[in-house]
């Protein structure tokens, strides 16, 4: 059985044409999936009964199963979702006054083995399908009030550029007026910096906001924190980012996890300043989220502010992220997966 949630609108139209079904029926089916968010093919009451019967023979409507919901003292919510092969993933909802942010995973585990990240320590299993990516969003949206403004970030488990087709297909569905109808301005893709994937991304007509998980502007330090970075020096990453058709006025966000004694010195700040002059960018300083599994410590608040002040003196845009959901292991670098036996 093929999951209908794996198709973009164009792909679904092509699939229906194989069955000699008119293209307007594909749009109706797409609307049922994403506007009405129905659970059964039989619920599509404007689709002829004969076609519904035909669809049920070859297709299914299947979302991940929500098996646990945890709520933080700061209102952050973490969802544990089980997939058809019994692997689980985690999705995070970060509520705010004017909007909610949904943090999506793109892989089961992660192959990059970043030393500061719990997910990376657990290893890699597989890429998520389009239906498993879009399913995280649908299940989360169902828990929210109608017409709530949503920001989408691919900052959960996995490296999105190593699953680019499924990630971009899911973004196509998110932004399609007949799908979820979200604005591309509210979608951010975060990457460690994979030049082949960045160059491939530049070929897509849809381009989300880009965040680079930088963590150091020094290649040696960066490779210690992110072993995958040994293959791709920052020069290659910056060159690939410059190929992206970023609209005038838009900037790449440089995510910088502040780790005590590793990347938080004034010298580190000045190295970062030199790099930021090469691309239109802003920096988001993120205090390291300490966990028993990882022997790093977070930079002190004083050191973070000293680092930020150094950047601001050079007229650079700097924000310091307030970590959310730490008490339920939902903050940056804390997500896990497991297999339900």
Automatic annotation (TrEMBL):
Localization in the cell: Cytoplasm
Entry annotated with the keyword Cell inner membrane: no
Enzyme class, UniProt record, top EC level: transferase
GO molecular function, one term: 4 iron, 4 sulfur cluster binding
Binding site for [4Fe-4S] cluster: 110, 114, 117
Stretches assigned to the Radical SAM core domain: 96-329
Cofactor: [4Fe-4S] cluster
An annotated GO cellular component: cytoplasm
Reactions performed catalytically: adenosine(2503) in 23S rRNA + 2 reduced [2Fe-2S]-[ferredoxin] + 2 S-adenosyl-L-methionine = 2-methyladenosine(2503) in 23S rRNA + 5'-deoxyadenosine + L-methionine + 2 oxidized [2Fe-2S]-[ferredoxin] + S-adenosyl-L-homocysteine; adenosine(37) in tRNA + 2 reduced [2Fe-2S]-[ferredoxin] + 2 S-adenosyl-L-methionine = 2-methyladenosine(37) in tRNA + 5'-deoxyadenosine + L-methionine + 2 oxidized [2Fe-2S]-[ferredoxin] + S-adenosyl-L-homocysteine
Highest taxon, organism lineage: Bacteria
Active site location: 90 (proton acceptor), 332 (s-methylcysteine intermediate)
Binding site for S-adenosyl-L-methionine: 158-159, 190, 213-215, 289
Enzyme Commission number(s) of this protein: 2.1.1.192
InterPro entries: Aldolase_TIM (IPR013785), Methyltransferase_A (IPR040072), RlmN_N (IPR048641), RNA_MTrfase_RlmN (IPR027492), rRNA_lsu_MTrfase_RlmN/Cfr (IPR004383), rSAM (IPR007197), rSAM_sf (IPR058240)
A Pfam family annotated for this UniProt entry: RlmN_N
Keywords in alphabetical order: 4Fe-4S, Cytoplasm, Disulfide bond, Iron, Iron-sulfur, Metal-binding, Methyltransferase, rRNA processing, S-adenosyl-L-methionine, Transferase, tRNA processing
Biological process annotations from GO: rRNA base methylation; tRNA methylation
Cofactor binding note of this UniProt entry: Binds 1 [4Fe-4S] cluster. The cluster is coordinated with 3 cysteines and an exchangeable S-adenosyl-L-methionine.
Record SUPFAM superfamilies: Radical SAM enzymes
Note: Reaction proceeds by a ping-pong mechanism involving intermediate methylation of a conserved cysteine residue.
Assigned protein family: Belongs to the radical SAM superfamily. RlmN family.
Role summary: Specifically methylates position 2 of adenine 2503 in 23S rRNA and position 2 of adenine 37 in tRNAs.
Protein name: Probable dual-specificity RNA methyltransferase RlmN
Organism: Candidatus Fischerbacteria bacterium RBG_13_37_8
Taxonomic lineage: Bacteria, Candidatus Fischeribacteriota
